[in-house]
């Protein structure tokens, strides 16, 4: 393993942390409807728990309403019950074969709670990035100890890993501020 390998490995891990943060932020509810909110809803499909997107077609009817249309008619009641029991604060209503899931407007207090949640996710991502930086620096120290790299190479490698860390932390901050604006917009 070389200094370049350590840097590349650290960068890949940091990028994965960003992807995880994006996925987690997508689950945070804003005033707008989006089908990603129902991703974690599990439906009892003939005795086995199955993701909602596997048993129904999810669409946006308008900015505040998600449409859920089960592929099988007899699954309508099961899907509606699963959405209601998913503890998302949603109250689905059935219209024939289509289940309408209106998004209740968020109160100011609830929006502030969501912002706290978003900031918590951001802090977790920053901790992950910093841990990756620490692992990278330890790997560089090990290369010097094993006499694979010089101390100058180690210093340069640490500087590069620090620049990567700064870049990814800045990206996390940007993602969080964008999500914060989205949550606080009425």
TrEMBL record:
CDD domains referenced in this protein's UniProt entry, alphabetically: RRF
Localization in the cell: Cytoplasm
Domain Ribosome recycling factor: 21-184
Cellular component annotations (GO), alphabetically ordered: cytosol
GO annotation terms (biological process): cytoplasmic translational termination
SUPFAM superfamilies, alphabetized: Ribosome recycling factor, RRF
Keywords noted in UniProt: Cytoplasm, Protein biosynthesis
Keyword Transmembrane assigned: no
Role, per record: Responsible for the release of ribosomes from messenger RNA at the termination of protein biosynthesis. May increase the efficiency of translation by recycling ribosomes from one round of translation to another.
PANTHER family noted in UniProt: MITOCHONDRIAL RIBOSOME RECYCLING FACTOR PSEUDO 1, RIBOSOME RECYCLING FACTOR
Family according to the record: Belongs to the RRF family.
Protein name: Ribosome-recycling factor
């Amino acid at each position: 393993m070389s200094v370049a390998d350590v840097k590349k490995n650290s960068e890949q891990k940091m990028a994965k942390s960003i992807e995880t943060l994006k996925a987690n932020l997508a689950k945070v509810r804003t005033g707008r409807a989006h089908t990603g909110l129902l991703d974690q809803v599990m439906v009892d499909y003939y005795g086995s728990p199955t993701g909602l997107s596997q048993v129904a077609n999810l669409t946006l009817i308008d900015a505040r309403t998600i449409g859920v249309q089960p592929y099988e008619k007899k699954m309508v009641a099961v899907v509606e019950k699963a959405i209601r029991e998913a503890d998302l604060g949603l109250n689905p209503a059935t219209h024939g074969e289509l289940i309408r899931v209106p998004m209740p407007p968020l109160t100011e207090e609830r929006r502030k709670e969501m912002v706290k949640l978003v900031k918590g996710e951001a802090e977790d991502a920053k901790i992950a990035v910093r841990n990756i930086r620490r692992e990278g620096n330890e790997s560089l120290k090990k290369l010097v100890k094993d006499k694979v790299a010089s101390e100058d190479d180690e210093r340069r490698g640490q500087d590069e890993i620090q620049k990567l860390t700064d870049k990814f932390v800045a990206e996390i901050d940007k993602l969080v501020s964008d999500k914060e604006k989205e949550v606080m917009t009425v």
